[in-house]
Amino acid sequence: MVKNIMKMIGIILLVVIILIVALFIKAALTPAVPKNYTDTVKTGGDIEAKYLKNGAYTVAYTEVKADERLGKYEIYYPDALTSDERNYPVIVVSNGTGVKASKYKAMFEHFASWGFVVIGNEEENSWDGSSVEKSLSYLLQCNADKENIFYQKIDTDNIGSLGHSQGGVGAISAVTNTSHSDMYKTVVAESPTNRELADNLQWHYGIEKVHIPILMVAGTEKFDAETVIPLEKMNEMYDALDNVPIKAMARRTDTEHGYMLYSADGYVTAWFMWQLQNDTEAAKAFIGDKPELLDNELYQDQRIDMKETE
Known about the structure:
By secondary structure, the chain is of the alpha/beta class. It has one domain (2-306): Rossmann fold, CATH 3.40.50. The chain is 38% helix and 21% strand. A 9-stranded mixed sheet has the order 1-2-4-3-5-6-7-8-9, with helices on both faces. A hairpin with a 6-residue loop joins strand 1 (59-65) and strand 2 (72-78).
């Protein structure tokens, strides 16, 4: 009798996990990132509006075949890179469930227009950070190859990690559990799968190991707020970040899980501009006498904490 009950519980748990994974895939694939999202997403502050728009750089693209799991490396970069003497900061992207890099080209192009080299791949199971590690390793090889267009064009002191949903877990894993973890300067996790659910899905990660500046954003609609990252779980994750110089979190109102892939892009871009390009105007969204994020009516449950430096 006991064995039958345990078997039934196991079956029910398996069904629940399968349903959750199916919902992740559906939410991640719907909607796709609109080509014109930088013109249509609503903003609630001048800084958010500025950095949601495309930047000044014309964007170029290249792709290179990778292994079977990753499919290919997809790299978006400022076209000026081929003629400039300077090097460029990097954003390494970790994919959400079912959302390959080729599914959200507009977002990659947006970041590149602000002066970033942005690299992704076609991996669909990114939680452990290994696919991101391969992307970064490849880009570093390019930076050392005299015959490559990226030769000595990569700013290895300014590398950021970004991911949505399962990719949020992957972005955190990249900066805590890979060979090049120490090269990352900052991380942004969009609607990262909460740790309890991630553990049930065997996506184990240690957010308490993060030691660099981190921004977390999420939505308040049903799937995001009740399943992926409920506010209580988000606050627990935020509170576990004891060793970071600055951390920030916010939930975008009336926004569902899939839309969080790009709806907070104004502040995500501002965060990377501040952290990786030392943009003092972008920094005002998060620090100063009146950080814009804290007063933006399109967001709630905002928290920003910065350790005092000696």
